[in-house]
Specification:
Mean pLDDT: 90
Number of strands: 21
CATH architecture of the largest domain: 3-Layer(aba) Sandwich
Strand content: 25-35%
Oligomer: single chain
CATH superfamily of the largest domain: P-loop containing nucleotide triphosphate hydrolases
Bound molecules: adenosine-5'-triphosphate, magnesium ion
Number of helices: 8
CATH class of the largest domain: Alpha Beta
Helix content: 10-25%
Largest sheet: 6 strands, mixed
Shape: elongated
Structural class: alpha+beta
Radius of gyration: 25 Å
Length: 396
């Protein structure tokens, strides 16, 4: 198992007033289910700011829903604290636990979970009725919430007579109508088809800009996470592996799990030519006469000049060109395109790379290259990641 991320905040204190923008603060949360051998959530600390979408991303069973349920008050953490702003919601050391109905959180789940025997307006008004809001206010708030999700005019429609996307919008309106401190979203789009998911993603992003609300969003879909989040906390086995803005996770993954979960990575073998203390390494690609690129490592101290490393390259940082001559020019490495797969938006080439293994390279649709022909791969000069596993002893 990989260790906790260098980016996670270990502090166990309440957020101070300088951080008043923090809407929800989770501090050192642990949760093991009765009968469970391993904790579902281990020492989890994250903050969600007002006006921010923070996404919990990770494979099935990594503890995303458990975390969300602890925020909602549907699960008791074994250890740790939860704050809403500066207010304590859970303090396990003091056995303090605020009941779910006192927390004012909005929730939207994968299943639409709108009540079939009610109209759209009745569905949205329900949480306000339960809290005994005055009738006139209920009507006005429900109207506003439906307007926010683009469902004005649907008030009297029975719930079941809506499309999946519309039902999910009703669920959003119902979650927003109480003006919650935080909106909790657990895979809210996973029952929708691909086109509708894209639309809903954009709607939520626009909605969030208008409302300036804090959202804790759960998904195992990395595209959804990358496109929608201000920040992502990537989890595995209950542990946050790295948190930060989507670009940080994509461009500077903290460990191999993050690298492989977020996007695709091509691994090339190389040898370290030089390095600096900030972790930038100049790496000469194995099998190329003159191809040196720069990559970042998180543990520069352990890497010596001449060490065998892997360099992690994102597919869009490699260009494939027909070979023109026998020796690849500077910055390029040679290979042979074994297979070309036309996938619509691009062509994918299975390339045997000189001195390396086989990699899948993305090529431009308008510049096809013949199967079986020699190619050159041109790597971006910098912005890669470097990984210390020594390939020189491994059998391919
Ligand atoms: N009520 C429960 N009782 C016992 N174990 C549970 C319970 N709920 C979840 N677990 C276990 O806790 C771990 C985390 O589950 P959780 O539902 O939080 O995962 P998740 O990240 O939401 O996964 P998914 O993407 O599949 O929804 C899993 O190993 C799961 O089997
Ligand atoms: Mg889940």
């Amino acid at each position: 198992m990989t260790s906790a991320a260098p980016h996670s905040a270990p502090s166990a204190q309440a957020p101070n007033s300088e951080m008043s923008k923090v809407a929800v603060s989770l501090r050192g949360l642990w949760k093991t289910y009765p009968g469970g051998t391993n904790p579902a959530v281990r020492n989890l600390s994250i903050d969600i700011n007002d006006g921010e979408i923070l996404t919990l991303l990770g494979p099935s069973g990594c503890g995303k829903t458990t975390t969300l349920r602890m925020v909602a008050g549907l699960e008791h953490p074994d250890a740790g604290d939860i704050f809403f702003g500066e207010q304590s919601v859970v303090m396990t050391s003091k056995r303090m636990f605020m009941a779910p109905d006192k927390r004012n959180v909005g929730m939207v789940f994968q299943s639409y979970a709108i009540w079939p025997h009610m109209t759209v307006a009745e569905n949205v008004a329900f949480p306000l009725k339960a809290r005994r809001f005055p009738k006139s206010e209920i009507k006005e708030r429900a109207r506003k919430a439906l307007d926010l999700v683009g469902l004005s005019g649907f008030e009297d429609r029975p719930g079941p007579l809506l499309s999946g996307g519309q039902q999910q919008r009703v669920a959003f309106a119902r979650a927003l109508v109480t003006e919650p401190r935080v909106l909790l979203l657990d895979e809210p789009f996973s029952n929708l088809d691909a086109k509708l998911r894209e639309q809903m993603r954009i709607s939520v992003k626009l909605l969030q800009k208008r409302l300036n609300i804090a959202m804790l969003f759960v998904t195992h879909d990395q595209i959804e996470a990358l496109s929608l989040s201000n920040r992502i906390a990537l989890m595995n086995f209950g542990v946050v592996q790295q948190q930060g803005d989507p670009r940080l996770l994509y461009e500077e993954p903290a460990n191999e799990f993050v690298r492989d979960f977020v996007g695709r990575t091509l691994l090339f073998k190389g040898k370290v030519q030089s390095g600096n203390p900030s972790g930038q390494l100049a790496i000469a690609l194995e099998g190329a006469p003159d191809c040196v690129v720069f990559g970042r490592t998180y543990n520069p101290d352990s890497i010596k000049t001449g060490a065998a490393v892997y360099i992690g390259v994102r597919p869009e940082d490699v260009e494939i060109l027909p070979a023109n001559g026998s020796t690849p020019p500077a910055g390029m490495i040679g290979g042979k395109a074994q297979a070309a797969l036309f996938v619509g938006e691009r062509i994918e080439y299975q390339v045997d790379v000189d001195g390396q293994s086989t990699v899948l390279i993305y090529g431009e649709r308008h510049r096809p290259i013949d199967e079986g022909s020699k190619v050159w791969l041109k790597l971006r000069a910098d912005g890669h990641s470097a990984w210390t596993s020594d390939w020189s002893h491994k059998q391919e």
